[in-house]
């Protein structure tokens, strides 16, 4: 089954337009604090995410921005119709279950 992203990439490809999606997992920003979460709860949440991430870190806004800039650059001129997950491996699951 084609997704909207793939259909759009197929339709616009002949005009040289590339279509990709960037899907970030949890990103360490001020969003939760500004939404009313306490500093302590926010810090604990981020530590929990880092502990459970295979890379043992959490994605930063700068990481997402770098990926977007790469996809928009000529260096990614052959990438279209792709979905790029950026989450420090979090969606892969827990490696200790292997």
Features of the shown structure:
two-stranded parallel ribbon; Rossmann fold; alpha/beta; 98 residues
Account of the protein in words:
With about 100 residues, the chain is of the alpha/beta class. The protein has a single domain, classed as Rossmann fold, CATH 3.40.50. The protein is about 40% helix and about 10% strand. The protein has helices at about 5-10, 30-35, 40-50, 60-70; strands at about 20-25, 25-30, 60, 85. The strands form two sheets. The protein has a two-stranded parallel sheet with strand order 1-4. A two-stranded parallel ribbon has the order 2-3. The two termini are about 30 Å apart. The mean pLDDT is about 90.
Indicate the multimeric state. Answer: single chain
Quote the beta fraction.
Answer: 5-15%
**What's the name of the CATH homologous superfamily?**
NAD(P)-binding Rossmann-like Domain
Count of structural domains: 1
Radius of gyration: 17 Å
Number of helices: 4
* Main sheet summary: 2 strands, parallel
Helices and strands, in N-to-C order?
HEEHHEHE
Helical content stands at: 25-40%
| CATH fold assignment | Rossmann fold
Widest beta sheet: strand line-up: 1-4
